[in-house]
From TrEMBL:
Record's protein name: PucR C-terminal helix-turn-helix domain-containing protein
Domain of life of the native organism: Bacteria
Gene3D superfamilies, per database record: PucR C-terminal helix-turn-helix domain
Record-linked PANTHER family: CARBOHYDRATE DIACID REGULATOR (PTHR33744), DNA-BINDING TRANSCRIPTIONAL ACTIVATOR ADER (PTHR33744:SF1)
Organism: Streptomyces zhaozhouensis
InterPro entries, alphabetized: CdaR-like_regulators (IPR051448), CdaR_GGDEF (IPR041522), PucR_C-HTH_dom (IPR025736), PucR_C-HTH_sf (IPR042070)
Domain PucR C-terminal helix-turn-helix residue range list: 302-358
Signal peptide: none
Segments forming domain CdaR GGDEF-like: 127-252
Membership in a protein family: Belongs to the CdaR family.
Length: 371
């Protein structure tokens, strides 16, 4: 491997320092150590490798050694050993100072890059930056915002950030499977976020599976683990739109207590339609389900009965099992609901009205909350 040569001025005064050390046996001064640290920082900023800089200083020490005071046999074996020990100690100090300065410069650069990345992600997901500027910055992070993108969001019981081992595990799985595709994996508001090309749905599907497995390994409960996938949209604004769809799917899943761990916004489009006119939905819930308040114990138990019935595909035996009831007791509840509401759950047309009202009750938090 070819290495870039270290400029000669990096070694200015180093041989003179070693000569003085060999003569006096002193350590490097505070000023000399400070200059070497600054030299290490400069090397990092100028793109020199740390190995190259250290090798150059060690080579300079080896070259200078024969001419240093006390290095010849004529001065006595003990004197030679003493000079050698002092020079090696000084070289050790020099290497340590160079490495410290180099690492400090790298740390500053990493933090600067992390801050720029975080700022870009915030602007990308919230659409707060000029679109032309955002597109230009996106190239640095491997995204071409003129294309379509899909955003998936994963949430667990515990918060996660970019340095979290779980985040790194999912990122490694994606890289191993798909290679260096234009995929951005990050975190936002303690959730994992994956931005992937819209024409490659297998990427977000694989992300959803890996996130689900990783969250389960972490101890996240099945109820706490959710992955939502937005729809594919084009342009910089498309990323924001897909991200917001994924967040809305997560919120909807919590409000409706949906069972699937992986949610797709394309499969939930009916719910925004139902909630677009809140007044009309509230009126439907009050009109259709309001009479259930007259039941002994209130409407809550009978609404849960209807939820189980519709969630089980209108199969009474399965719904009864979910509620830990006998089929006979469950059937009695359905009859009670029909008597109070005047709506027959077994009739296909009436069932649609009743199910829509039940969904509205979930969305509006009824009967726990007044409408």
């Amino acid at each position: 491997m070819a290495y870039r040569a270290v400029p000669e001025h990096y070694l200015d005064g180093y041989a003179e320092i070693l000569a003085e050390v060999a003569t006096t046996g002193r350590r490097l001064t505070r000023g000399e150590v400070h200059e070497l640290r600054e030299l290490g920082e400069r090397a990092a900023r100028e793109g020199l490798g740390l190995r190259q800089v250290i090798r150059a200083h060690l080579a300079a020490a080896r070259t200078a050694w024969p001419d240093l005071p006390g290095a010849s046999d004529a001065s006595g074996v003990r004197r030679v050993r003493s000079a050698a020990a002092c020079v090696l100690a000084a070289a050790e100090q020099a290497v340590d100072a160079l490495a410290e300065g180099y690492e400090r410069a790298q740390l500053v650069a990493v933090r600067r890059d992390e801050a720029a990345r975080r700022e870009f992600i915030d602007d990308l997901l919230h659409g707060r930056s000029d679109l032309a500027d955002l597109s230009a910055r996106a190239e640095r992070f491997g995204l071409q915002l003129a294309h379509t993108h899909t955003v998936a969001v994963a949430r667990g019981d515990q918060p996660h950030d970019d340095t979290d081992p779980l985040t790194r595990r999912v990122e490694t799985a994606l890289t191993t499977r798909f290679g260096p595709r234009r995929v951005l994996l990050t975190t936002k508001d303690a959730r994992l976020v994956c931005v992937a090309p819209g024409h490659q749905p297998d990427v977000v599907e694989y992300f959803a599976e890996q996130a689900r497995v990783a969250l389960a390994m972490e101890g996240t409960t099945e109820h706490g683990c959710r992955v939502a996938i937005g729809r594919a949209h084009s342009g910089p604004g498309g990323v924001v739109q897909s991200y917001e769809e994924a967040l809305s799917a997560l919120e909807l899943a919590d409000r409706l207590q949906l069972e699937p761990v992986v949610l797709r916004a394309s499969e939930l489009l009916v719910f925004p339609v139902l909630t677009r006119d809140r007044y009309a939905m509230a009126d439907l819930v009050r009109t259709v389900l309001g009479p259930l308040r007259g039941a002994r114990g209130g409407a809550g138990e009978l609404v849960r009965t209807l939820n189980a019935y519709f969630d089980s595909g209108c199969v009474s035996a399965e719904a009864a099992r979910r509620l830990s009831l006998s089929v006979r007791a469950f059937t009695y509840r359905l009859e009670r609901i029909e008597k109070l509401t005047g709506v027959d759950p077994s009739d296909s047309f009436q069932r649609y009205t009743l199910q829509t009202a039940v969904i509205g009750a979930r969305l509006l938090g009824w009967p726990e909350q007044e409408l």
